[in-house]
């Protein structure tokens, strides 16, 4: 285990170092004199010229080049823009209300970025000292904005561990998905060859691997998947570009993955099975101690998950559609149950809580199980709303009034800025008469909420999978999507490896997504810089990207349903084989 942990830690460290070196090289390359004119020609959306020059005095050339140079509107949105964040912090430091002058769209909690340490060269410093201070300032800025991606990779691996450790061994679907990774096939074949040499075999049956060889192969496979998930999360272009653009959506992804990770820990104790004898009871107790020491306290994980979920919804109101599956995840288990569809089941922690409440009651019939279940659900929802209310009050205290609600949460509902973005909303409302705007705003908002109930009901046996599907819907249909939303949806695919054999059109989905991702900045650059195109070209590429997101969600839904059907067919085939074998034995005996 130490060697596998060391391998995983090395992979994360290497990815972070590569990210930092790439960002440093790009920053100093764009700081060359030939690129200074590019930054000066780009006009910010600020009316006061003196304010514009003062804010731009400490601007980052990488941010300006990515967000305004090649037309990468998808790197950030008006609600996650770094320039809007700088404007908001500048106004806040000057004692001016940030939400009274312009549409900021950022939560008041982001004003805490104004208190981060900064290293800026003074006017009296020597050229050598100025260069050193500028390097330290750039390095500190890069590390600050690389931190959320590192946390996202860490939480993603923890979610995968919670889901994979919820069963004592890999089932057949997990084994087939693991074989799809080429690097993992060698380790499994090597362990099977070693076990075949040491274990005696019979001519009719293949030998079973020893517990040591199985544990070693499982440990190496798990560590390889951990490293692969971290690499995909940290080195994905969909994740790197928003980080270089200093988009606040990277922090939103880290907060959401943290909420999912802590919520999965609450139900991960369901992996501890019921002991059947004294020896099994001792092994279960020892395993329970190891799991508890690794995961922490169950109530603490629940509170952390609800707090981070409240923070995520507070930062962006679109994430409210993730509240039902997140509550279901906290109350259930993260283990894969796609092959075992059924009703919703509470996790082991909540079952023990209900059993304890019944035991402590003198008359157990006085408290029905339905009331006990409702009490638990209401307690979780109440704790969430308490955290959400506290964050709202803190934001109000920071700003001093309630006007920030309309500028932040209202922006997700009313679409005040029609800035081009990879979403499907902006162009539709650009061509619309103002008389019909309120009606279609309601239609678009309700359409986003329509997917919550079907996914949560159909996949109530696997709430983590329902959360994954709603993440894809949010990345495709939210008002102001960014590359970070697609990066989160793509990264979560690695957790559900059991659905890979049941995907119907993964290659067409990828072939639709890649051209759209490449054509969006190209068409935007031709439209706004050279003037050789128009908005129709860019919007057509965004529609293709939305189609790719819809294809991915539909394929994931179909694969999740096929898991249960294929498992049922396999069980029927196994029953038929057993029945035929019994018939042969009867005929042989006669």
Automatic annotation (TrEMBL):
Keyword Endoplasmic reticulum (UniProt): yes
Pathway, per record: Glycolipid biosynthesis; glycosylphosphatidylinositol-anchor biosynthesis
Membrane association type: Multi-pass membrane protein
Keywords, comma-separated and alphabetical: Endoplasmic reticulum, GPI-anchor biosynthesis, Membrane, Transmembrane, Transmembrane helix
Pfam families the UniProt entry points to: PIG-U (PF06728)
InterPro entries registered for this protein in UniProt: PIG-U
Keyword 4Fe-4S: no
Protein name in UniProt: PIG-U-domain-containing protein
Species this chain originates from: Lentinula aciculospora
Taxonomy of the source species: Eukaryota, Fungi, Dikarya, Basidiomycota, Agaricomycotina
């Amino acid at each position: 285990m130490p060697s596998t942990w060391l391998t995983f830690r090395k992979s994360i460290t290497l990815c972070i170092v590569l990210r930092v070196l790439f960002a440093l090289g790009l920053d100093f390359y764009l700081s060359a004199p030939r690129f200074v004119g590019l930054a000066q020609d780009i006009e910010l959306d600020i009316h006061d010229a003196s304010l514009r020059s003062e804010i731009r005095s400490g601007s980052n050339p990488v941010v300006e080049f990515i967000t305004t140079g090649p037309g990468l509107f998808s790197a950030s949105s008006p609600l996650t823009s770094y320039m809007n964040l700088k404007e908001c912090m500048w106004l806040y430091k000057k004692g001016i209300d940030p939400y009274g002058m312009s549409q900021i769209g950022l939560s008041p909690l982001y004003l805490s970025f104004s208190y981060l340490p900064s290293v800026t060269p003074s006017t009296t410093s020597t050229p050598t000292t100025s260069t050193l201070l500028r390097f330290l300032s750039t390095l500190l800025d890069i590390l600050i904005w690389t931190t959320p991606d590192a946390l996202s990779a860490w939480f993603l691996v923890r979610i995968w561990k919670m889901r994979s450790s919820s069963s004592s061994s890999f089932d057949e679907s997990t084994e087939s998905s693991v074989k799809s990774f080429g690097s993992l096939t060698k380790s499994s074949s090597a362990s099977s060859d070693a076990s075949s040499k040491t274990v005696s075999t019979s001519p009719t049956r293949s030998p079973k691997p020893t517990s040591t060889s199985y544990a070693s192969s499982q440990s190496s496979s798990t560590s390889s998947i951990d490293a692969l998930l971290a690499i995909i999360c940290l080195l994905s272009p969909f994740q790197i570009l928003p980080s270089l653009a200093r988009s606040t959506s990277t922090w939103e992804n880290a907060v959401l993955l943290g909420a999912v990770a802590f919520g999965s820990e609450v139900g991960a104790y369901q992996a501890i099975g019921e002991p059947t004898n004294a020896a099994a009871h001792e092994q279960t107790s020892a395993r329970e101690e190891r799991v508890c020491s690794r995961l922490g306290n169950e109530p603490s994980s629940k509170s952390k998950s609800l707090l981070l979920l409240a923070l995520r919804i507070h930062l962006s109101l679109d994430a409210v559609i993730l509240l039902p599956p997140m509550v279901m995840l906290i109350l259930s288990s993260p283990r894969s149950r796609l092959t075992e569809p059924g009703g919703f089941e509470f996790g082991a922690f909540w079952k023990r809580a209900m059993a304890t409440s019944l035991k402590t009651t003198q008359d157990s019939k006085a408290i029905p199980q339905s009331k006990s279940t409702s009490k638990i659900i209401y307690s979780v929802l109440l704790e969430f709303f308490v955290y959400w209310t506290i964050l709202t009050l803190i934001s109000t205290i920071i700003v001093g009034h309630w006007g920030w609600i309309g500028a932040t949460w209202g922006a997700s509902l009313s679409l005040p800025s029609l800035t081009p973005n990879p979403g499907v909303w902006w162009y539709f409302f650009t061509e619309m008469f103002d008389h019909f705007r309120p009606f279609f705003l309601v239609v678009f908002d309700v359409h986003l909420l329509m997917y919550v109930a079907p996914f949560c009901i159909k996949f109530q046996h696997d709430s983590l999978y329902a959360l994954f599907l709603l993440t894809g819907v949010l990345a495709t249909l939210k008002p102001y999507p960014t590359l970070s939303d697609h990066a989160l949806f793509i990264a979560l695919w690695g957790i559900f490896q059991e659905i890979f054999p049941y995907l119907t059109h993964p290659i067409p989905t990828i072939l639709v997504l890649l051209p759209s991702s490449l054509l969006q900045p190209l068409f935007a650059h031709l439209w706004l810089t050279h003037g050789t195109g128009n908005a129709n070209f860019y919007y057509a590429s965004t529609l293709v990207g939305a189609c790719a997101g819809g294809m991915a969600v539909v394929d994931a839904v179909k694969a999740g349903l096929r898991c249960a059907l294929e498992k049922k067919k396999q069980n029927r085939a196994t029953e038929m084989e057993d029945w035929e074998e019994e018939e042969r034995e009867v005929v042989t005996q006669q």
